[in-house]
What we know:
It contains 21 helices and 18 strands. It is elongated and about 80 Å long. Helix content is about 45%, strand content about 15%.
Amino acid sequence: MIYIIDxxxxxxxxxxxxLEDEDYFARCFASGRTALRQxxxxxxxxxxxxxxxxxxxxxxxxxxxxxLYPALPVVMISGHATIEQAVQATxxxxxxxxxxxxxxxxxxxxxxxLVPGIQPPLASQQAEAVLEFDEIIGKSRAILxxxxxxxxxxxxxxxxxxxxxxxxxxxxxxxxxxxxSRRREFPFVEVNCAAIPEEMIESELLGxxxxxxxxxxxxxxxxxxxxxxxTIFLDEICDMSLAMQAKVLxxxxxxxxxxxxxxxxxxxxxxxxxxxxxxxxxxxxxGRFREDLYYRLNVIPINMPPLRERQEDIPLIAEYFIREAxxxxxxxxxxxxxxxxxxxxxxxxxxNIRELKNVVERLCVLSTETEVDHExxxxxxxxxxGQSMSKSVLDPGVDLKSAREQFEREYIIxxxxxxxxxxxxxxxxxxxxxTNLHRKIKxxxxxxxQL
Length: 451
């Protein structure tokens, strides 16, 4: 998508017509103020910005665009600009400066050279699902398909099973389905099945009566009951014990259950969304996941692609995390050079969006320059992933399960070291619950005292 910001209607309409003839999607704005309001809702691929916008100064608008999107390509256009203004615009981050009357052929050449990846046909823009609530960043075909699936799922009460590697954004999909559904006025209850000890999960999900076991000093309502008329999100469901899977299956079948230690049946109306970061069919084959529960949950499957399979979305996501890092850490504006962004796009990101967020924040915090250059980025990305990837993980003789566990172990060790062995801080850094991290540390045999 390309924004055209110019107070001259004839220039706006001419540019829009030419761009749309070339299958670009263009939006026109007569003022910087109007364009900035829209920019708060979406990020285009490039902006064509006039130096003079009636009473508005285009260079001030450029500064405001830079605050929102430090690395967004902006091309200035003007018929009355001085050399000094052109230099000033370049210093403020404009990538080019075109003089009026515009050569339309030159405009197209500049667009293709500055952002060669943008040429989505208008049809693909029109096919994007319109969601009232949407936190998923991306314009790739894979993400547009995900949003279509979310839109379809939100219109129903059908159960949804979300697949995807760690850090791909499965929680965002679950939230989007809920927030766009008819149940959005009722509770959304999230449960990380891997983070709850096996002996506590039945009480956690179904609740318990007073005196039902040692320590049960009062009656407690479980997560299913809390989610009545709303939605429950069972994350990492394949890590749930087989015994508890059987009880969840019964709740799905009957929409009723007994609290632990109770004899009275509790009826619930709950929509279930489940997620896993492993292959459920392999888990079934390994005897870790019930096949009948799988078929109950897998009514609408949604597969979140890893970041390496939607590289065109990386600049959008990185820009968002840059703004977050600047705001949360009260930093001066930062921007990534084109070579830095190219490096980010070509990295494999085994930790997916969660890892990208950590790297972007680190680069923003540690870089002393306004522009984060390629060499600085390469060193910090290598520090995060490349240096921690041992030869044993890369050995083709190592099976995938062992390689994944080895990488996860080394990844967590590196994060713990960076956070000086502070488990709570590391859990926030990794985007997981503290109890889940404790379980992973024990499961992976990480010796805290040796870090």
